[in-house]
Structures are given as C-alpha cells and as structure tokens.
C-alpha cells in the first residue's frame, strides 16, 4: 500500500516532514532564473525551466533527510503546458531520488471525469498496446464533498497502482470553520468527513495499520488535530500550516500515534525561501533549504522523539 512506503521513508529518515515544492519566480535567486528568462521569448517557458532547475537543486539538497515532497499543481498550471511539463519532470526527478511524491491538486468530480483525474495523477494512459504514466505521483490530495462517487474511482487506481489519497477534512485556512465546523446532526462537518475517510479506507489497509485514504488536517487547529487522531485510528494525516501559517511543533504533537507515526507535516515557503531569511549568498539557496529542513526535523523531534514501525 502506497502510504506504507511513505511510513517507511519517515522511519528511515526519522523525519515526519514533507517539503512543498511551490515555486514562484520571487523565490528563485537571480543567478538561476535570469538566464532562463533571457533564453526564451515565451516568459512561461523561461519560468518553467527555472522552476524545474530550482526544484532539482532543492531535491538534491534534501532527499536524504526528508522523505517526501508535495508539489502544488496550481503553481505549475499557471505557466500553461510548459509549467505542467515542469511538474511532470519534477515528480520524476524526486521519485528517482527515492522520495515519496504527494501531488497537491485537490481534485474532485464523479464518474468518468474522476476516473480521468485518477488516471492522470495516479495511474497510466494506454494506447496502441503501450502504457505510460502521465504524472506518476504516489498520492493525490482530493476534495471529498461529492461523496463516495468522487472517491471510488480513485480507490480503484490506488489498488491497481499502489497509490494513495489525502482527503480534505479540517483545513488550515482561517475561514475553514465557516463550513467544516458546522454541525450536521451530532457531528461537525469535519468529523463527518473524517469518519468517511475511515469508511473509505476500511478495505484498503496497509501493513502498518493505516489505509490508502489519508486526511488533510491543519496544524493551525491543534485541538481538532488531536481529536481526529483519536477518532480516526486508520487514517494517516497530511498536516499543512506548520511554520509560515502559524502552526507550531507543539501544536502538531497530537497528530502522532504511540509509534511516532500517523502524520507527515508540510513546510513549503520556509524551506524554499530559507536563503532570504538567512541572508546568505543566493548561490547557497539549496544549502539554506537543507539547513531549514534540518531545523524543522529537530523541531518536530522535540515533540515526537521515537519513530518506529
């Protein structure tokens, strides 16, 4: 099961962290981006080339200490087909380094359309007797608010291709409570969605007790994070909101089980722009990213000391 591989990576690195690869031109130092922008007449093509080279250097700096990366599809789609190509190549490069890749697309639909999303991001495309992976991610973030009709097509591909999903449950943004905290009978909406994750994952359990159906639960709501960890014993969490959005290591402590498993914590901007915060030479941006990733690892270790299977 796909999330078993993520868990094994967390144990191997002793680090329950994922780095979000969400580049913008402002994050990329001038010495790296300016030659690409000058080379191509199309600014999207130049930016996409800069994104890819930047991502590769970040991956090279962290792959041995961080088990996973999470590229957010929107940053690449903003550059058209050139950016989508950079996303594909980023995923392949990260996987080539042994990293687990969570594609952050928050996709949602039903029927043949959801099957197409599933095939694109987690599955294969076949023609003339040949098969290829369009994107090749290990997991995909999804929106579950169309119910089982939007999840079942994904689970078919998860079983066939050893992939996983992370369903939006209690997100880290300030206005999430406008919908997710509302009562639906005796349960909040986020509790109801979390319970559905347990149900959807019931027949897709891995060898470490967690299913192929994970949940997105924000670090900015530590009480709900702890509550859901107890409520959803078979659901692995993707935890955004650490660092730049205000979530702390202390607030994340409740996301982990007694083995130090149960969650992977995302940091994007803090790692990608560490060179700016440090004020170091821009040519050392990847070194600064590694130093920030190590700082984050130590921060998480302070509240989650023993990680084991």
From TrEMBL:
<feature type="domain" description="Orotidine 5'-phosphate decarboxylase">
    <location>
        <begin position="16"/>
        <end position="283"/>
    </location>
</feature>
<dbReference type="InterPro" id="IPR011995">
    <property type="entry name" value="OMPdecase_type-2"/>
</dbReference>
<protein>
    <recommendedName>
        <fullName>Orotidine 5'-phosphate decarboxylase</fullName>
        <ecNumber>4.1.1.23</ecNumber>
    </recommendedName>
</protein>
<dbReference type="InterPro" id="IPR013785">
    <property type="entry name" value="Aldolase_TIM"/>
</dbReference>
<dbReference type="InterPro" id="IPR018089">
    <property type="entry name" value="OMPdecase_AS"/>
</dbReference>
<dbReference type="GO" id="GO:0004590">
    <property type="term" value="F:orotidine-5'-phosphate decarboxylase activity"/>
</dbReference>
<dbReference type="InterPro" id="IPR001754">
    <property type="entry name" value="OMPdeCOase_dom"/>
</dbReference>
<dbReference type="GO" id="GO:0006207">
    <property type="term" value="P:'de novo' pyrimidine nucleobase biosynthetic process"/>
</dbReference>
<dbReference type="Pfam" id="PF00215">
    <property type="entry name" value="OMPdecase"/>
</dbReference>
<dbReference type="GO" id="GO:0044205">
    <property type="term" value="P:'de novo' UMP biosynthetic process"/>
</dbReference>
<comment type="similarity">
    <text>Belongs to the OMP decarboxylase family. Type 2 subfamily.</text>
</comment>
<keyword id="KW-0210">Decarboxylase</keyword>
<comment type="pathway">
    <text>Pyrimidine metabolism; UMP biosynthesis via de novo pathway; UMP from orotate: step 2/2.</text>
</comment>
<feature type="active site" description="Proton donor">
    <location>
        <position position="106"/>
    </location>
</feature>
<dbReference type="InterPro" id="IPR011060">
    <property type="entry name" value="RibuloseP-bd_barrel"/>
</dbReference>
<keyword id="KW-0456">Lyase</keyword>
<keyword id="KW-0665">Pyrimidine biosynthesis</keyword>
